[in-house]
Amino acid sequence: MDIATLGGLIVGVGAVIVAFVLEGGHLSALFHGPAMIIVIFGTLGAATVTTSYRIFGNIPKLLNIAFFSRAVDSINLIDQIVRLAEKARREGILGLERDLENLKNPFFHKAVQLVVDGTEVTMLRNILETEMAYINQRHKTGILFFQKLGGFSPTMGIIGTVLGLIHALSQVDEASKIAGAIAGAFIATLWGIAMANLCYLPISDKLRFRHQQETKTLELVLEGMISIQSGENPRVIRNKLLSFVNPNQRNEK
Predict the structure, then answer these.
(1) pLDDT at residue 253 greater than cutoff 50
(2) Could you tell me how far CA 71 lies from the centroid of its own chain?
(3) Which of 21, 35, 142, 166 makes an SS bond possible with 188, Cβ 3.0 to 4.6 Å?
């Protein structure tokens, strides 16, 4: 579980709820069935229209990435690449084939397999950059989906409020019910804005952050494998790859 994601949501939602209670409100007033249906399901429906059902089905996977995914340790990855470079120097490129089964990252596995297969350096770069472009596009699709949810949600909240006001004003002959009906109508706006700013948009930005982390990992692997295929010295490879890491995180050897 990513503490920053969970903790941020708890603090954000908690601040709104605590402030509402301190003002004398009752939590039960916030859970208005019609308003929640319009905002949540209306938003999901509108966002799905702009993309495909496949993306809608990927929501659980995207949430898993936002809440549970962990960044790869760049230093450990560099050490692993350097060990492969040292082994390639001692035993030759074909000696790396025995390490393939230990590589769980699909991109890393593919890169090493291409090196073992003797792929020429230019072709190796082209293949891996094409793979990276596809991965980036896939990531951006998920990021954009949650951005759209964040854009549609406040609008659906306004629609819910307008519908609630229409219902409230249709009961002018029952003045005692109008005030409650109007208050209930604005719950939809609250849900629309809250879902956008406390859920959808933060998750979109978290997915963008994960994307940036993975992009750095892919670039490390790309440059490392090209360097190995080019026969560069392992020490040179380490120094080159350390440029991807913040200076305060580097473990010079």
Answers:
(1) no
(2) 12
(3) 35
In which element (H, E) is residue 234 found? helix 234-241
Task: Look up tokens 């030759």; give the residue.
Answer: 92
| Exposure string over 148-171, b if 16+ CB within 10 A, otherwise e | bbbbbbbebbebbbeebbeebeee
Closest CA to 33 of 196, 252, 191, 225: 191
The pair of three-digit structure tokens given for residue 139, joined into one six-digit string = 């990531």
Here the tokens at position 234 are 């392992």
CA dihedral 150→152→158→159, nearest 10 degrees, is -150
Do the Cβ atoms of 93 and 229 come closer than 8 Å?
A: yes
Q: pLDDT tens digit string along 152-186? A: 999 999 999 998 888 777 766 666 677 777 877 88
Tokens of residue 115, six digits:
């090196």
Question: What is the distance in angstroms between the CA of the first residue and the CA of the last residue of the chain?
Answer: 32
Indicate the SS3 state at residue 32.
coil
The C-alpha atoms of residue 200 and residue 146 are separated, in whole angstroms, by 5
Total residues belonging to the chain: 253
Does the pTM of the predicted model rise above 0.90?
no
